[in-house]
Amino acid sequence: MFQRAIEEEVERFLGRARFERTPTARGSRNGHGPKQIATAEGPLTIAVPQVRDSLTRFVSSVIPDCRTAVRTRPLEALVIGAYVRGLSDRDIESLATEAGLGHISRTAVSGICPALRDRYRAFRAKSLADVQLLSLMLDAIYLPVRPDGPKEGVLVAWGYSLEGERVLLDVCLGQRERTEDWLDLGRGLAARGLASPLLVVSDGSPGLVSAIGQLWPDADRQRCTVHRLRNVLAKLPKKPLLHERIRRAYWAALDGATSPQEAQGRLRAIVGELERDYPSAAACLADDLPALTVHLAYPLALRKRLRSTNLLERSLEEVRRRTKVIGRFPGETSCLTLAWAVMDLVIAGARGLAVSGPERGAIAALVAAARSVPDAQQVAQSIGAEEPAPSRFSNRSRTRPPGGARDRTSADPAVGNQPM
């Protein structure tokens, strides 16, 4: 995109296209010179055209003549968002200039979306062999993928690495979120080299839960605590005081516990309280209950981020918001490319986990336990931990609730704002 934009900028400066001869030309090309620029994605080398015999010096507005980072993310976000809102290439050209993101021609603008499709294909083919996941987050969103017919599921997988970095892993079509759809996604990740994560976080979709057990049998499964609370409250009468009481008791049971076993005991007390007057709500909370407490076996500072797919849900809502004005997509390639582009922007702009020395040591011990390594020292060194974790982590039992699952929590106005 940048190479094309700067070539067009030189053509306007000289008053002629490359290899074109005209008496009104204001100079001539003199080859290219490499220039490395800092972008949001990392260092990028651009072949900058050299100009001679001109009255004024050529200075690019696309690539500043300085060492500051080129703001590729805002530029890309503006173009994607403008296309979604139905703006013309001319409108986008004006917006980029007004936003202080440099001049970009209509030709370059119109080439961004095809370029995004190429990047999406490259993203899905990229090797994941070097990615080591602490947690894997899975969810889906339903979009009008085709000009007619029902909405279809778009499956999304992203996670936190052992260093706490966010990693977007896959965005693909899932039809109706069947077990086979999720199995296809997981097999694709494995084929690209992704090893089993320590923890998989998901909602209670039967197809997804079944697939997790088949794909990553040795991983812990955390069930989203927010989804579960929504389900419980939906089975209660619409009495604000009752909802508030159950909500407070629920979060207190999870926040006040120091181990999965303690939290399970507290949650079962709530089940007992609900059983007589609200048996449906009690049964809902009791179902897959141990999966709600798995995050408590992980480092204290990370627990509230690992018990929820909060960031993933917000990212999917951003996809929904940006695609709503389109109506229906012309096909799955267009839909998946745009969904990936929006997810990529959102994930890149969100903060990762704050993994400090103690957390690194605890994570190293969890990895060692998962690999049946008696000494966590070699794992600690591999992920940059200064100290191995206390032995109580490496010796913990990795038994799981039925289905190999464990659940998570997130911020939601209906269930209370939980700090993440």
Detail the poorly predicted runs.
66-71, 373-377, 387-414
Give a quick account of the main beta sheet: strands, pairing sense, barrel closure.
5 strands, mixed
Task: Find the structural class using helix and strand composition.
Answer: alpha/beta
The rounded Rg comes to 26 Å
Secondary structure: helix percent: 40-55%
Could you tell me the strand content as a percent range? 5-15%
Series of secondary-structure elements, N-terminal to C-terminal: HEEHHHEEEHEHEHHHHHHHHHH
Q: What's the number of extended β-strand segments? A: 7
Mean pLDDT reading? 77
> End-to-end span in angstroms?
37 Å
Total helical elements? 16
Categorize the overall geometry: elongated
Strand arrangement in the largest pleated sheet: 5-4-3-6-7
Short description:
45% of the residues lie in helices and 15% in strands. The protein is of the alpha/beta class and 420 residues long.
